[in-house]
């Protein structure tokens, strides 16, 4: 059973998840898994080795193309009840939440630069469907979708997959970002991220890709080398709001960004993070959600994990990035124009 503890010194929360201790570290034996795909739980034909399926998309022949299952080594449990308690000086709460795995494709060794546009669309459709469903559980206050690719990014299985962790609280890091979005909106009546996008389009020197709905750029204060942000040009507060046309555009944007990243970096480890406005919960804090859909803009962040975090980063929460975002964008642009 997991618990969530809060650090009085930093305000940070930690999920203590003893179940995670038992998960297999497949990268230690990744060459073995590559040789013998019967060892991979995410292959077609190995469905019985995962917990019961929550969702899947199927092709015309009835074979799954994406599949969602509960994480066997879950950090949080949907069967928990929500309860906060004091433990002497400290605060802790029960580990209520959802932890799901999205198996993105039946193909074991497929990098995202080789996904077809149809695969990207299926991937996005799967994410959106799960977010919508988790919205229905009123106990859940925040839904984080993310992908870990490679050992340096924290992945323990090679088969392409993403994860969803939904919590019964808004994580402090997201809460701080919401405050920044809100402050800016109250001052200027515009969403902060749309003004950033406007500035990036105007400056032009950090742009990686652009179409009529989305723009990909290396953020001005990138924490990671070759970090890329994909953001909409119009106000969209959460990915489940995007139209079919916008989904198609986002698929193209992702494909082009990954092609450029793989072209410049070769095989690389990365995290991909989806930032969405939290689902509306008026029974929690009605004023908190006031105008959220006007100021919180959805975006995707891709952070290559070329360098590992060290003491300074851990102590200060400040990254040292050896490559300017302008230089990174130029290299990615050159790759795209090649
Ligand atoms: Zn596999």
Structural commentary:
The chain is an alpha+beta fold. The chain has one domain (3-337): HIT-like (HIT family, subunit A, 2-Layer Sandwich). The protein contains 9 helices and 14 strands. The strands form 2 sheets. A 10-stranded antiparallel β-sheet has the order 3-4-7-9-8-13-14-12-11-10, with helices on both faces. The model is unreliable at 27-33 (pLDDT under 50). Zinc ion binds next to loops. Residues 37, 40, 42-43, 108, 159 line the site of zinc ion.
Task: Give the key terms.
HIT family, subunit A, ten-stranded antiparallel sheet, 9 helices, binds zinc ion, globular, four-stranded antiparallel sheet, 338 residues
List the helices and strands and how they pair.
Blueprint: E1 3-6, E2 13-16, H1 30-35, E3 55-58, E4 64-70, E5 84-87, E6 90-94, E7 97-103, H2 117-135, E8 142-149, E9 161-167, H3 172-188, H4 192-203, E10 207-210, E11 214-217, E12 228-232, H5 244-265, E13 270-275, H6 282-285, H7 292-295, E14 299-304, H8 311-316, H9 325-337
Helix pairs in contact: 2-5, 5-9
Question: How many separate structural domains?
Answer: 1
CATH architecture: 2-Layer Sandwich
Strand percent estimate: 15-25%
Can you give the helix content as a percent range? Answer: 25-40%
According to CATH, the fold-level topology is HIT family, subunit A
**How would the global form be characterised?**
globular
Radius of gyration equals: 20 Å
**Ligand species:** zinc ion
The secondary-structure class comes to: alpha+beta
Strand order of the largest sheet: 3-4-7-9-8-13-14-12-11-10
Taking the sheet with the most strands, its summary is: 10 strands, antiparallel
Kindly report how far apart the N and C termini lie: 52 Å
């Amino acid at each position: 059973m997991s618990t969530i503890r809060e650090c009085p010194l930093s305000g940070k929360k930690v999920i203590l998840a003893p179940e995670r201790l038992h998960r297999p570290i497949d990268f230690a034996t990744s060459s073995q898994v590559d040789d013998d795909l019967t060892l991979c739980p995410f292959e077609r034909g190995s469905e019985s080795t995962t917990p019961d399926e929550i969702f899947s998309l199927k092709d015309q022949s009835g074979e799954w193309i994406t599949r969602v299952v509960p994480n066997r080594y879950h950090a949080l449990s949907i069967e928990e009840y929500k309860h906060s308690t004091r433990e002497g000086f400290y605060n802790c709460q029960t580990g209520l939440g959802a932890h799901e795995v999205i198996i993105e494709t039946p193909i074991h060794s497929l990098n995202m630069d080789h996904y077809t546009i149809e695969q990207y669309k299926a991937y996005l459709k799967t994410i959106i469907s799960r977010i919508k469903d988790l919205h229905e559980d009123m106990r859940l206050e925040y839904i984080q979708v993310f992908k870990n690719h490679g050992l340096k990014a924290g992945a323990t299985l090679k088969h392409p997959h993403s994860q969803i962790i939904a919590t019964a609280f808004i994580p402090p890091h997201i809460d701080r970002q919401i405050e920044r979005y809100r402050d800016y909106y109250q001052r200027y009546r515009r969403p902060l991220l749309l003004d950033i996008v406007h500035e990036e389009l105007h400056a032009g020197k950090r742009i990686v890709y652009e179409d009529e709905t989305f723009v990909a750029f290396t953020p001005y204060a990138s924490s990671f080398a070759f970090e890329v942000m994909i953001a909409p040009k119009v106000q969209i507060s959460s990915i489940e709001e995007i139209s079919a046309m916008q989904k198609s555009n986002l698929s193209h944007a992702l494909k082009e960004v990954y092609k450029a990243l793989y072209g410049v970096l070769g095989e690389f480890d990365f995290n991909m993070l989806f930032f969405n406005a939290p689902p509306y919960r008026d029974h929690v804090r009605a004023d908190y959600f006031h105008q959220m859909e006007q100021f919180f803009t959805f975006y995707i962040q891709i952070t290559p994990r070329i360098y590992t975090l060290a003491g300074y980063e851990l102590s200060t929460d400040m990254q040292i990035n050896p490559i300017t975002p302008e230089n990174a964008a130029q290299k990615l642009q050159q790759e795209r124009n090649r």
